[in-house]
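User: I've been going back and forth on whether these two constructs are worth ordering. Before I decide, could you fold them both?

Assistant: Sure. I'll take them in the order you sent them. The first construct and its structure tokens:
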Amino acid sequence: MIDLDSKVNDLIYRNAELQLRLEMVEQERNFYFEKLRGIELMLQIHYERNYESRHGDKLIADISQVVCAKVEDEVLVSDDGRIQRGDNKVSVAVSIICFVFMLFTL
């Protein structure tokens, strides 16, 4: 009986620890999602205000492309900051962005 009580107590402790970790991950997810949402909003406003000159604003277009990319788009950002199309490899930055958006929509 002591062994069973010990196992139950261990499982209760591990469950509480996992719940705490989940809360921390959810808080971090929300933090980064809000940052990305703010960036997306800033890009949209910049694009709308500079409608006529948007053709010359390559940086804004590139950032928008990365922020709005889906996993299947395979958008990569090279070490020198240029956008590339991947071959089933997704860069860390794009993976994180897509993962955060995916988590938020669950």
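The second construct, handled the same way:
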Amino acid sequence: MDESPTPVLDVLLHPIRWRIVQRALGREVTTTDLKRDLPDIPTTTLYRHVAALIDAGYLTVVRERKIRGTTERTLSLDQTKVGRIDERSDCRSECRVWSIFREPQRIGSGSS
């Protein structure tokens, strides 16, 4: 039996991973940027979730540089992987949930 990749929902709908993905949409980020943008997330937790997104293929390391004895990685959202979500034939429920997050929702617009 073929081993399928981690389902979209398992990876992206974790609240911390989703916040990381939101910060990476349309721009390159470093973990330093993410720590600054997400100060309520402990550093070790942030690194663990960034690693999970890299392992799942949603974040890609686009550049590395040495800074004071450590390696800073610049990350980017893998647009090819994200683009394939809607093209999958077996993604009915996953795509519906994904589209909820991609499309702006009007909350409290006055109509019920």
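Notes on the second construct follow. The chain has six helices and three strands. Residues 55 and 70 are 21 Å apart (CA to CA).
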